[in-house]
From TrEMBL:
InterPro entries: CBASS_pafABC_assoc_protein, WCX_dom, WYL_dom. This is Uncharacterized protein. Residues 151-219 form the WYL domain. It comes from Thalassovita autumnalis. Signal peptide: none annotated. PANTHER family: PROTEIN PAFC, PTHR34580. Residues 251-319 form the WCX domain. It comes from the Bacteria.
């Protein structure tokens, strides 16, 4: 057996053991980019190496293979590429201000490294740091909003309930922070992070609370039932960034010049965007969203290589600072 096939077999064993219902031939084919005949041969090889593997037929008459004896899998240890990927995820989460994810990923990393012999652990950590530096992940500067880790932890606990929260919050029109009782629905990460919640003292509409403006948070014992029709992903898609306004929600159309079209095609400006190639080599991008100010911030990076066709308000905002001196595209 080749080294690559041995690695694939160990990966397949890990998949079979980690998935509650086991794995199917089709899932193996998709995971390893092979046809189903090759996937069947891989499962047969897995049975030879791990005789304890068993199978059952699910409700859709598909055979699912499950490895329950995982003692041999623990002998693999931790691969360098896995530690590098974990360190990169921690660094990205730090840059985005996702403190809860940073704490969880660091805890996972520490537990995994603790299972290694000390000499090997130190060697892998040094290698991971060097590779991250080479990839440009380490020590990359950039602006981010400061948010209290204590507030984030409390908000996270309330979301898991879900439980009502008491927060001291200073809105844009408030002279000082005031107490509010809210029902949290989710968090949107962006230039600024927003907590999506209902203010129980007002109507049933969902509102956005800037996390950096929450002075203090206190979880209650009051459980509440979320609206079953609420979809955080769909809600987030109504915005270009993290800011949302029903009054601003409209069709957005940008035309990129032929010089910028190839670069623009590499971007996902919005989850539900449409792209149309133009005869002159340019590119038309359209979607529906709110957040005109955040759009203007982004469009400034493209200089004169992008033109706003819709909406009129955004076109007028951008027209004032379209800069011909911008020669490097995002």
């Amino acid at each position: 057996m080749s080294f690559q096939k041995a690695q694939d077999l160990l990966k397949l064993a890990g998949m079979s053991a980690s998935r509650h219902g086991g794995i199917t031939v089709k899932e193996v084919a998709e995971a390893f980019s092979v046809n189903e005949r090759t996937a069947q041969r891989m499962i047969a090889a897995l049975k030879d190496v791990f005789p304890s593997i068993s199978h059952q037929t699910d409700n859709e008459r598909r055979r699912r293979w499950k490895l329950r004896d995982t003692s041999m899998l623990g002998m693999q240890g931790l691969y360098r590429r896995e530690l590098v990927a974990l360190e990169a995820s921690i660094t990205r989460a730090e840059r985005e201000g996702a403190d809860m994810e940073v704490e969880a990923l660091r805890s996972l990393r520490d537990r995994l490294v603790a299972t290694l012999p000390s000499a090997q652990a130190r060697s892998m950590e040094v290698d991971a740091e060097a590779i991250l530096e080479a990839k440009g992940y380490a020590c990359r500067p950039g602006p981010k909003v400061k948010i209290s880790p204590a507030v984030l932890n409390i908000v996270s606990a309330a979301l898991r309930g879900p439980f009502r929260l008491i927060i001291r919050y200073q809105g844009a029109q408030d002279a000082k922070p005031r107490k509010r009782l809210i029902e949290p629905y989710g968090i949107l990460l962006g230039t600024r992070h927003y907590l999506i919640a209902r203010d129980t003292a007002k109507d049933a509409n969902l509102r956005r609370f800037r996390l950096d403006r929450i002075e203090k948070a206190e979880i209650t014992n009051d459980w509440f039932e979320k609206d079953r029709d609420f979809d955080l992903e769909a809600y987030a898609a109504r915005s270009f960034g993290s800011f949302h306004s029903d009054d601003e929600f409209s069709r957005v159309v940008w035309r990129f010049s032929p010089a910028a079209a190839a670069t623009a095609r590499e971007f996902e400006f919005h989850p539900k965007q449409d792209m149309i190639d133009l005869e002159d080599g340019g590119l038309l991008v359209s979607f529906e969203a709110s957040g005109l100010v955040e759009m203007a911030w982004h469009l400034a990076k493209w200089g004169r290589e992008v033109e706003v066709l819709e909406p009129r308000e955004l076109r007028e905002t951008v027209a004032g600072y379209r800069n011909a001196s911008v020669h490097v595209l995002p």
